[in-house]
Every structure is written in C-alpha cells, then in structure tokens.
C-alpha cells in the first residue's frame, strides 16, 4: 500500500478542510520519494531536530545569558515551549499538527548568539549587503548552510515550512497558512509567560509590578480562588500555567467561532482570508500591556542592557576581525565568501556560533 495514501486517509479523517493536508503539499525543491510511514511534515520536523543549528539553540540566549544562572529559558527550551503550545492549539482546531510542530521547531533557528542584541549588530555590519534578519537566516540555513545529505544542499524542507519561515521574515511576503498563524501566536504566548517567570525568579520584577496588568492579576485571582494561599514560588508557577491556559483557551473559543462562520473550504482559501488565528481584541490589548511592562522593566533593565552591550561589542569586533582577515574563516565559510562575498560569509559563521562559542572566539581574537 502506498504510505502517502494511508497518511492522506488519516489526515482526511482527523484534519479540518481548512488545514494544510500533506497530500496537497507543493513538495520539495529536490524531488524525493515519499517515506513509507512518515508524512512530509514529520520528515521536516525530524530533519530540523537532527540539524546542527537546532542543537546549538541549547546554548543560545533567549533573553538571559548563562551568566545569569540556569533557571531561565534558552533559545532551545523556548522553542520547545512554543512547539508544545502550538501543537495543543493545532490539535484543538484540527489543523496539521505535524506541520505546526515543524514550523515551531524551525522558528528561531536563525538566531545568532546573544539574541536580538546579536541580530542588531549583524544587521548593522551587513547593512551594505541587505542586512541580517534571524527569520531570513533560518531560510538560508535550511536551503544552504546545513550540510547533512549527500544528494542536496540544506535540508530540502517542504515549500510550506520554507514559505512559513519566509513569511515570518517579511510579513508582506504573501498570506500565511493557519498553521503559520498558530505558531506566531504560540511564540508570543510562550515568551510573555516565560519572560515574566524568568524575570521574577531573577528578582528583576515583583508580583506587585505584574499585578498592575489585568491579565496577570486576574490569573493570580483565579489561582487564589482555586488553591488558597500559596508560597511565592508555587504561586508564580501556578500563575504562569494559568496565564498560558487562559490565553490559549480564550483564543481557541474565539477562533472556533470565526472558523465556523467563515468556513474556509481549503487551506488556501483560509490563507486568503487574512489573520483568522488571533485572541479576542480585549485579550490582545492586555497582552500588549504585559509585553510593554516586560519591555520597560526587563528588556531595558540595566543588568540586561549592560550584558547586551558587552556582547554586542564582542560580536562587532569579531566581525571586523574576520572581514579584515578572511583567511581565518573555517573552510566551508571560505567557500561561501567566494560566492556571496566576505561580509556575508563572516555573518553566516558568526551567526552560527553559540553564546559561549562567540565569547571564546572573541577571547582568541583579542588575545
Ligand atoms: Mg520565538
């Protein structure tokens, strides 16, 4: 029996008409026979989790660096939280969970060391070459920089995963599938909750600060109603769980009504309808307030800013050093320098490094 027919049959039963059914995939750049028992998006997921750039996420900054303890999220654990939330939402909405998982695991893979601070430095350094954006870098990793297979460069992912990632890099780049919209939303749900949790653990914020936000204070109230008085650490974790559950549940309730009313007959039709996966307006306003609080109090905290500036200087100085001495580039990046120019090759190399890898490289550069 042709395995894809089995997968198609299975998806026909489990998925909604507006989900991206794998039988309708536009396929891969390099043709490959279908797998005996994995759907195309399951293969994408496996290719992503087995690639070097994915493993390096374990030692890349989300918001806080390794100098700030070991409680907080890394880029990898953030990615896994996003995948977990996104899969829950996809299953409830009868979307393609395999595609959502692949998209979620892919979504931050293009981040350089030191998160957005690193991204800003590389964007400035590469301003004359089209700049640097972590979403676009992910596509570059998937199409070109990863080298795992003898018969094609990159990972040869499906068009749907690559287009989803391209859309994240340029929101004017067409309309996204519902599966892409789910991952976008799961990303913000995850970082709102876990950045608050991490910042509380580090003492950069207090419960009182966060209780000024109604999303947080109402979650605290519901936890209090259910469990009574709790110690500080237990309360914090319970509120974080409650917050995620509340935003996901409210969003699913709203989106289910929207999907029933609009009733898109196919994934492409749903895509053309614009953004259908969104929290109710009032909830979105409260989320934006919470994000503003995190921005003002956490992302701009002197400890975070000071660390960011130190790392930005290290990255910039490595960039200048390698552009001036490209013969120091590892061989595979020297090949990229020949085709794409030295600055881009240096950008690719430095972006691939973990936080610690960059610190070591910088110590070597200045030593
Ligand atoms: Mg993210």
Key words describing this protein structure:
flat, 18 helices, 367 residues, mainly alpha, binds magnesium ion, 66% helix
Which helices and strands occur, and which strands form pairs?
Layout: H1 3-14, H2 40-49, H3 52-56, H4 75-92, H5 97-106, H6 115-125, H7 134-145, H8 159-169, H9 178-201, H10 207-211, H11 214-227, H12 232-262, H13 267-272, H14 281-299, H15 302-324, H16 331-340, H17 342-352, H18 355-366
Helix pairs in contact: 2-5, 4-5, 4-9, 5-8, 5-9, 6-15, 7-8, 9-12, 9-14, 11-12, 15-17, 15-18, 16-17
The chain binds magnesium ion (MG).
Ions, cofactors, ligands: which are bound?
Answer: magnesium ion
List the uncertain runs.
Answer: none
- Output the radius of gyration: 22 Å
How many β-strand runs?
0
* Order of H and E elements: HHHHHHHHHHHHHHHHHH
Judging from the principal axes of the Cα atoms, what is the shape?
flat
* Oligomerization status of the protein chains: single chain
Structural class: mainly alpha
Separation, N- and C-terminal Cα atoms: 62 Å
How many helix segments? 18
Q: What is the strand content?
A: under 5%
Average pLDDT score: 92
Biggest beta sheet summary: none
Helix content: 55-70%
Structure write-up:
This protein is mainly α. It contains 18 helices and no strands. Helix 9 (178-201) packs antiparallel against helix 12 (232-262). Bound molecules: magnesium ion (MG). The site of magnesium ion has 5 residues, from helix 4. Magnesium ion binds next to helix 4.
């Amino acid at each position: 029996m042709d395995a894809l027919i089995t997968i198609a049959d299975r998806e026909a039963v489990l998925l909604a008409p507006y989900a991206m059914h794998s039988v309708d995939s536009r396929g891969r750049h390099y043709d490959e026979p279908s797998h005996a028992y994995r759907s195309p998006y399951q293969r994408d997921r496996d290719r992503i989790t087995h690639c070097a750039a994915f493993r390096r996420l374990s030692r890349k900054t989300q918001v806080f660096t390794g100098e700030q303890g070991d409680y907080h999220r890394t880029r990898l654990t953030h990615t896994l939280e996003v995948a977990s939330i996104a899969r829950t939402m996809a299953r409830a909405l009868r979307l393609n969970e395999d595609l959502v998982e692949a998209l979620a695991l892919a979504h931050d893979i293009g981040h350089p060391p030191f998160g957005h601070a690193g991204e800003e430095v590389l964007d400035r350094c590469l301003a004359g070459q089209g700049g640097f954006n972590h979403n676009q870098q992910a596509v570059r990793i998937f199409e070109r920089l990863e080298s795992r297979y003898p018969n094609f460069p990159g990972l040869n992912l499906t068009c749907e995963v690559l287009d989803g990632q391209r859309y994240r890099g340029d929101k004017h780049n067409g309309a996204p599938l519902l599966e892409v919209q789910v991952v976008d939303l799961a990303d913000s749900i995850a970082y709102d909750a876990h950045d608050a949790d991490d910042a509380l653990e580090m003492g950069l914020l207090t419960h009182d600060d966060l209780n000024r936000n109604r999303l947080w204070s109402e979650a605290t109230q519901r936890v209090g109603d259910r469990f009574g008085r709790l110690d500080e650490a237990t309360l914090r974790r319970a509120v974080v769980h409650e917050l995620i559950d509340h935003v996901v549940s409210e969003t699913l309730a709203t989106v289910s009504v929207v999907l029933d009313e609009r009733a898109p007959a196919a994934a492409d039709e749903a895509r053309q309808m614009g953004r259908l996966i969104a929290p109710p307006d009032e909830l979105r306003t409260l989320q934006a307030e919470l994000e503003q609080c995190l921005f003002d109090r956490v992302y701009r905290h002197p400890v975070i800013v000071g660390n960011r500036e130190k790392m930005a200087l290290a990255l910039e100085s490595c960039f200048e050093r390698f552009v001036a001495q490209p013969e120091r580039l590892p061989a595979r990046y020297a090949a990229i320098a020949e085709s794409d120019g030295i600055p881009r090759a240096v950008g690719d190399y430095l972006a691939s490094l973990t936080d610690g890898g960059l610190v070591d490289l910088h110590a070597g550069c200045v030593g």
